[in-house]
């Protein structure tokens, strides 16, 4: 029993072996692709079949197959019945259910292993398959259901969830700095959940609703517009030139009169100082640091120096703080 056949076929796509034992085509589809959008080989297999079977009478593909003139029997045959249906070189297409057809494939494997049955050729034919990012559709569907049925999630607001967005972002940074790949994947998922959750809540706004598709569409348009060196006629050969393109197009979009606009003042102090220094440097402004007294001005100078040296002052301070934490633990253990 082979997943695919490599033998030479005759005028009607058959060979001597298939003519005797027949062929079973297991047709799989993705629920993330609109029903009816099948590959051309799948439509050919369906039209050439002597019989088409589907165990699920509510399968989303059935109305489209029947509309196309494909007769589908709603039946769930055993492996032996399926083999018998292929007798005389007949072709049988099985439209797989969402769970696949483990009872059939396992049963066919047992029959083949017994050596007592002449097995038909078996072909696994993906009729539709997922593109990269398709699992995001599952996340949207799960979020819809949770929003509708979960007593906690159904009551959440943008304001109530705001703190979780901050927490998840910090946990993501921690996973990145720790170099933990499993933790990184999980934390990226948690951040993504916040985006989908807020987007789902936004759909219910009476005055200005928007959906996750609006969010995705907006960022796609923004990325294309701010990368004229990729999608347009401009050129950029260094990261610095890319950054200049980005800031220039961003300023035009938002009609900003100062490079400091759009810098959130609520972010951690070292990050804020470094961001302001970076904006000034990118804009070609030579602005002396304010000469005040106290720790704040000293930290400002250190943040500006770190930015000029290409160092993230927040990350550097966290690394030093972790070293301090380890030293405290060692002292506590009497080391």
UniProtKB/TrEMBL annotation:
<feature type="domain" description="NTP pyrophosphohydrolase MazG-like">
    <location>
        <begin position="156"/>
        <end position="231"/>
    </location>
</feature>
<dbReference type="InterPro" id="IPR004518">
    <property type="entry name" value="MazG-like_dom"/>
</dbReference>
<protein>
    <submittedName>
        <fullName>Nucleoside triphosphate pyrophosphohydrolase</fullName>
        <ecNumber>3.6.1.9</ecNumber>
    </submittedName>
</protein>
<dbReference type="GO" id="GO:0047429">
    <property type="term" value="F:nucleoside triphosphate diphosphatase activity"/>
</dbReference>
<keyword id="KW-0378">Hydrolase</keyword>
<dbReference type="Pfam" id="PF03819">
    <property type="entry name" value="MazG"/>
</dbReference>
<dbReference type="InterPro" id="IPR048015">
    <property type="entry name" value="NTP-PPase_MazG-like_N"/>
</dbReference>
<dbReference type="InterPro" id="IPR035996">
    <property type="entry name" value="4pyrrol_Methylase_sf"/>
</dbReference>
<dbReference type="InterPro" id="IPR011551">
    <property type="entry name" value="NTP_PyrPHydrolase_MazG"/>
</dbReference>
């Amino acid at each position: 029993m082979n997943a695919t056949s490599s033998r030479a076929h005759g005028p009607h796509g058959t060979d001597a072996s298939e003519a005797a034992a027949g062929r079973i085509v297991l047709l799989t589809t993705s629920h993330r692709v609109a029903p009816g959008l099948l590959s051309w080989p799948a439509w050919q297999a369906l039209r050439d079949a002597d019989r088409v079977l589907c165990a699920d009478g509510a399968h989303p593909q059935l109305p489209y197959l029947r509309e196309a003139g494909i007769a589908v029997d709603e039946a769930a045959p055993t492996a032996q019945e399926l083999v018998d249906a292929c007798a005389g070189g007949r072709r049988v297409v099985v439209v797989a259910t969402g769970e696949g057809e483990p009872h059939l494939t396992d049963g066919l494997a047992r029959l083949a292993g017994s050596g007592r049955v002449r097995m038909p050729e078996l072909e696994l034919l993906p009729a539709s398959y997922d593109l990269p990012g398709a699992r995001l559709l599952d996340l949207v569907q799960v979020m819809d259901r949770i929003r509708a049925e979960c007593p906690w999630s159904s009551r959440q607001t943008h304001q109530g969830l705001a703190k979780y967005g901050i927490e998840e972002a910090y946990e993501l940074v921690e996973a990145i700095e720790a170099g933990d790949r499993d933790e990184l994947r999980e934390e990226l998922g948690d951040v993504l959940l916040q985006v989908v959750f807020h987007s789902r809540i936004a759909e219910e706004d009476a005055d200005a609703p928007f959906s996750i598709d609006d969010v995705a569409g907006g960022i796609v348009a923004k990325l294309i517009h701010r990368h004229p060196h990729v999608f347009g006629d401009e050129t950029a050969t260094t990261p610095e030139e890319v950054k200049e393109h980005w800031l220039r197009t961003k300023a035009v979009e938002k009609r900003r009169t100062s490079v400091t606009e759009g810098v959130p003042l609520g972010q951690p102090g070292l990050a804020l100082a470094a961001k302001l220094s970076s904006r000034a440097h990118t804009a070609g402004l030579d602005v002396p640091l304010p000469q005040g007294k106290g720790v704040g001005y000293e930290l400002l100078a250190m943040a500006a120096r770190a930015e000029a040296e290409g160092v993230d002052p927040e990350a550097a301070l966290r690394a030093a703080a972790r070293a301090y934490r380890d030293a405290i633990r060692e002292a506590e253990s009497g080391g």
